[in-house]
Amino acid sequence: MSSYRADIGIFGGSGFYSLLKNAKEVEIDTPYGKPSDLISIAEYEGKTVAFLPRHGKDHRYPPHLIPYRANLYAMKELGVGKIIAPTASGSLQPHIKPGDFVVCDQFVDRTTGRHDTFFEGPDVIHISAAYPYCPALRKVAYETGRKMGISIHNKGTVVVIQGPRFSTVAESRWFSQMGWDVINMTQYPECYLARELGICYVNISLITDYDAGLEGNKEIKPVTQDDVLRVFNENNEKIKELIFEMIKKIDLNEKCTCCENV
Predict the structure, then answer these.
(1) Per annotation, catalytic residue among 181, 211, 226, 251
(2) How many other C-beta atoms can be found within 10 angstroms of the C-beta atom of residue 252?
(3) CATH of the domain at 235
(4) Helix, strand, coil percent content, the chain, rounded in steps of 5
(5) Which candidate in 29, 58, 209, 227 is catalytic?
(6) Which of 238, 158, 243 is CA-nearest to residue 205?
(7) How many domains does the chain have?
(8) In the beta sheet, which residues pair with residue 3?
(9) What pLDDT is stored for residue 149 in this prediction?
(10) Which of 143, 178, 242, 244 has the greatest CB tally within 10 Å of its CB?
(11) Which pLDDT score is estimated for 186?
(12) Is 209 one of the catalytic residues?
């Protein structure tokens, strides 16, 4: 058990490598190895916040090699009960535009070979993943984003691909035709591992571009690399502001359904 404690955990995504000022960096060992990087801990608005860039500060871990179990277990060791997890993502639907935020409520797993459970025996426990995201945190994220004037969607299904390669046009079109909304490389197993540990978890997908299949739609202009980088940087500043506002509003004592089956 770590001697350090935190109330709320934040996972930083691509390009999002720092958040807290005057933070203390701590090293935590877990039964699953070391987390992606040192964890920064600081006080904000009377709450203790722990920040960890999931790819590492130097982006050393590609999506399929991120030590997801170590990252989640380290947060649990700190006593974290709620996690905010932004991710850079692509849009699979025309109405979800670059610059928008999506508070996801479902995921579809298209990854392979990732260590995606803490229950490897001899005790085997089956945790429901029917509703993988915390409803209370999703409400806080959406309502806070709306009040800030952010173009934010209150639900969406994210399809998680293996990476590091992007989808082919055929794959992307299939995902869109299935009605899925967002595409990303890191939501699984991160989201589900949080559920196994009984930690409330919310994903906010930062839409940087339209995915490959949508770019074949004549009504949609294909996004250039410059466009992606511009939207990416703008989103990172907005997500930091949103996170700080969410921290103020999160009720640490609020009970929800995330730990019912744990």
Answers:
(1) 211
(2) 11
(3) 3.40.50.1580
(4) 30, 25, 50
(5) 209
(6) 158
(7) 1
(8) none
(9) 96
(10) 242
(11) 96
(12) yes
DSSP 38: P
Amino acid at 183: I
Q: What is the pLDDT of residues 140-172, one digit of tens each?
A: 999 999 999 999 999 999 999 999 888 888 999
Q: Per the structure block, which two tokens stand in for 208?
A: 């940087």
CB 103 within 8 A of CB 89: no
CA distance 187 to 64: 11
Residue 180 is assigned to a structural domain of this protein: yes
pLDDT band at 260 (very low <50, low <70, confident <90, very high): low
Host domain of residue 93: 8-249
The whole model's pTM is what? Answer: 0.92
Q: Return the C-alpha torsion angle 21, 26, 30, 36, nearest 10.
A: 50
pLDDT-based confidence at residue 20 (cuts at 50, 70, 90): confident
Please indicate whether residue 181 is annotated as part of the active site. no
How many Å separate Cα 108 from the centre of its chain? 14
Exposure of 249 in the CB half-sphere (CA atoms within 13 A): 18
Amino acid of residue 144: T
Query: Residue 134 is which amino acid?
Result: C
Q: Cβ(86)–Cβ(12) under 8 Å?
A: yes
CB 84 within 8 A of CB 194: no
Answer whether residue 225 shows pLDDT above 80.
Answer: no
174: which 2 tokens?
């299939």
